[in-house]
Amino acid sequence: MTAKRLRIIALLAISTVFLLAWAFPIVWSVMNSLKTDSDVLAYPPKLVFTPTWEAYRDVLFGSGSILPNLLSSVIISVGTTVVTMLMAVPAAYALARLRFRGKKFAGFYVLATQMLPPVGIIIPYFLVLRNIGWIDTYQGIILIYLSFSLPFAIWLLVSYFEDIPFEMEEAAYLDGASRLKTLWRIIIPQVRGGIAVTVVFVFLNAWNEFLFAVVLSGNTVRPVTVAMFNFVSVEQTLWAKLAAVSVLAMLPVVVLGVVAQKHIVKGLTVGAVKGGGRR
Amino acid sequence: MATTAVTSAEIASEAPRSDFGRVLAQRERRFAAALLAPAFLALLATTTFPLLFLVYTSAFRMDLAMPFTNGFVGFENYQVLLSDERFWTSLLVSLVYTGSTVALQVIIGLALALLVMDMKRGQGWFRVIAILPVVLSPAVVGMIWRTFMLAPEFGIVDFLAINAGLGSKNWLGDPTLAMVSVIAIHTWQWTPFAFMVLLASLASLPEDIYEAARLDRASAWQRFRRITLPLLRPAIVMVIIMRTMVALTAFAAIFTVTAGGPGTATEILNLYAYRKSFTELSIGYGSALAVALLIVTIIISGILFAMRRAK
Question: Which of A102, B65, B109, B139 could form a disulfide with B252 if both were Cys (CB 3.0 to 4.6 A apart)?
Fold first, then answer.
């Protein structure tokens, strides 16, 4: 065997190991979600088994259904996304395009807010929300989610606004259009793609959040990431059901991630060029 | 940013310093203020106000379990903190956790990026599969690893360990193994991030430099040492900065797996502040711990940013 052949085989082996290592825990959860508890617990682990939808039926429609939790997650994520975008789009436009005093400081401030450790924000927030009775409410969770979704969305959008040619707005001004009209009619349509990517990432981050949710949730508002814990207790673990809930919690973000595949690197590194960064 | 600055400067120099120009500039400022106001008010309310309030509560004894002992204590919480062994241990655990996860992510991510870059076929597989871990919630990842991967015997990792002749291990019950496990889980989830960023950066390097190096008969190692590494340096430093900030404040990835245990074996400072505040309900002292975490974060990011500027 030549050295070149050996090299190719080694490369192939290493690649396979890493691809397997990344994909396996996810694939394995999907497989376990289609098993019975005794199949999950089998030793050696069963790669071949008779699939059943039982676990999904139980977690969705049985007693202690997680449907309300999935709904909670959807309301929180959609609510956060809508509020974030309504505030972030105008702010990002101003930071990217307008001239005003203190612009540099404003941009720095947005970045610096991301340095705060979440645990440092949640302590005061818990105290305040408890006082005004907003624990276990959607408005309480969505408000605090702005602390991480807004800086992220603003910086991601600024990078898209900066790509539009200046001439377009100037032409609109010269035609006598007001600033607001120019923003709405000329600029926003230009950054539709960037807005779509930002929506995907804001939704994804809100869906995946855990620390704030675990402190601020209760019986009314409990997203699926927190509700998962009910399937693992000191007395017993409901193995197949836990797998089914995990898959349901993973499904939306995996779909969004694959859809936004080309923009993932930009979304993950936003703001990093200028400093900062987040979870 | 650069293009904006240039164009704005051009406009400013062309515009006559007339009343008309001044009115326009003023209108632009007002418009900017109106557009920025909602977002900045929200950021003030959700980040700056909590920070000030946190510093304030850290000067109080605020025990939700024993409210009758509450009151202003000044710097007492910080004095207690300095002689709190659990604080120093958690700080050490934080540094070990952050240092090892970031180093592993960068080294494995870079090695894989170099390897995949040379592949003629199959790059697409890596690009798709690498996305999966990074879009998942750390809470879900933690739960999956804790159960289906690390459970004794039928957990896949334990199954492999048994078959490799190591025997069944208590992956999350033994202090050292628990630390190894949480580090491995974090590394599993975020190495694809380093890999994707470094691969994108590698793909953007100019081809002709390598051509010249090959003509000069530079070895593969020399090409890596002298060309690739220096050119990738900004991307590598950026990955280090971003991943360090995240690892320092990792929560779900540890909380769902070990909850900081066994004992305090995997309790990073972030988790200690949480447990003190919300499990032991000692909010004043928890706030002081959170402030300490903020100071540590600022010091470390200061060092990293200095590293970025240095050539």
Answer: B139
Say which CATH superfamily domain A60-269 falls into: MetI-like (1.10.3720.10)
Judge: B137–A239 Cβ closer than 8 Å, yes or no: no
Range of the domain at B155: 80-309
Our CA-based measurement puts residue A162 at a distance from the nearest CA of chain B, in whole angstroms, of 7
ipTM associated with this complex: 0.90
* Of residues B119, B241, B249, nearest to A118 (C-beta): B249
Report the residue from B27, B57, B298 with minimal CB separation from A123: B57
In a domain, residue B64? The reply is no
Our CA angle for B133, A157, B203, nearest 5°, is 55
User: Of B39, B145, B256, which is closest to A150 when you measure between CB atoms?
Assistant: B39
Indicate if B201 and B244 belong to the same structural domain. Answer: yes
Q: Quick one: pLDDT band at residue A48, thresholds 50, 70, 90?
A: confident
* Alpha helices by DSSP H, A47-191: 54-61, 67-97, 103-112, 118-131, 138-161, 166-174, 179-182, 188-190
Which phi and psi (to 5°) does residue A159 adopt? -65, -30
Question: Token pair 């088994």 is at which residue?
Answer: A49
CB contact under 8 A, B43 and A109: yes
CA distance A67 to chain B (A): 17
CB contact under 8 A, A116 and B294: yes
What's the average model confidence in pLDDT over B227-245? Answer: 90
Domain boundaries, chain A: 3-57, 60-269
Residue-wise pLDDT for A26-44, tens only, equals 999 999 999 998 898 888 8
